[in-house]
Write a structure and sequence with these properties.
Blueprint: H1 9-14, H2 16-25, H3 30-69, H4 80-83, E1 88-95, E2 100-107, H5 110-123, H6 130-136, H7 139-144, H8 151-155, H9 169-187, H10 197-211, H11 213-222, H12 225-230
Antiparallel strand pairs: 1-2
Helix pairs in contact: 2-3, 3-9, 3-10, 3-11, 5-6, 9-10, 10-11
Organism: Kribbella deserti
Protein name: Abi-like protein
Length: 233
């Protein structure tokens, strides 16, 4: 079946502002604009495929590192305050009453603690299998475990074991940050027309290799991103 002529139905489907991005990229050629949108959808799916493989690898590597090296009184997923004890730092946060950012003492572990508490509830409570709780935690949770806020409490004693010996936390954090931003963009069906996907694919491959060279090889062998980049309309 052939696709219909890209008439006004396209704007009704995608919205005029969304389609205008592709119209601009195609210099007003409506058929090429629709082709670009289809390509964007296809490469977004391919990117998500690779990110999903990496995410599962990272969460299981972090889970193993915490389980094998933390020696908490119970599995780390069952007690958010055990693994994310309050850590207070002074940060500049927006104060609506003042209309500006002001210094405040904040608990940098509050967000991951609340995220873990929510995952426990969604999995069925503290008696749920740890693997079920781990599976409820989103990419953003794992992304922030490599941040500077967790250097002393989590990275040095435990999380560095998830990667090859000598791996730098800032190197992991930069890559995780870029990939998290990409994942959010893909999840919201945003354009990747100007995104440096060659760079992010390299970052993804490097992170996977630090976890497991075999995982990196499998992702590379099963990925469609490079093929789709070459087929961009």
């Amino acid at each position: 079946m052939t696709t219909p002529h890209p008439g006004a139905w396209v704007e009704a489907w995608l919205s005029a502002p969304r389609f205008s991005v592709y119209l601009a990229a195609a210099l007003g050629d409506r058929q090429r604009s629709l082709d670009l949108y289809e390509w964007n959808t296809q490469i977004s799916s391919a990117v998500l495929h690779d990110l999903a493989h990496l995410e599962v690898g990272i969460r299981n590597a972090y889970d193993a590192a915490l389980t094998q090296h933390a020696h908490f009184t119970s599995h780390w997923t069952t007690n958010p305050h055990q693994v994310f004890a309050p850590v207070y730092r002074t940060k500049r946060v927006y104060d609506p009453s003042a209309g500006r950012r002001v210094p405040r003492r904040v608990d940098v572990n509050q967000k991951p603690r609340q995220t873990l508490e929510r995952a426990i509830g969604e999995a069925g409570g503290t008696n749920a299998p740890p693997g079920k709780i781990v599976a409820q935690l989103m990419f953003g949770f794992w992304r922030y475990l490599s941040s500077a806020a967790h250097e002393v409490s989590l990275w040095r004693p435990y999380l560095h074991h998830a990667f090859a010996a000598g791996t730098s936390r800032p190197d992991v954090d930069v890559r995780m940050g870029d990939l998290h931003e990409l994942r959010n963009r893909v999840a919201h069906h945003e354009p990747l027309l100007t995104w440096d996907l060659v760079k992010t694919q390299q970052q993804l491959a490097e992170l996977a290799d630090l976890i497991s060279p075999e995982l990196a090889q499998h992702i590379a062998a099963s990925s469609k991103v490079t093929e789709l980049l070459a087929a961009k309309p």
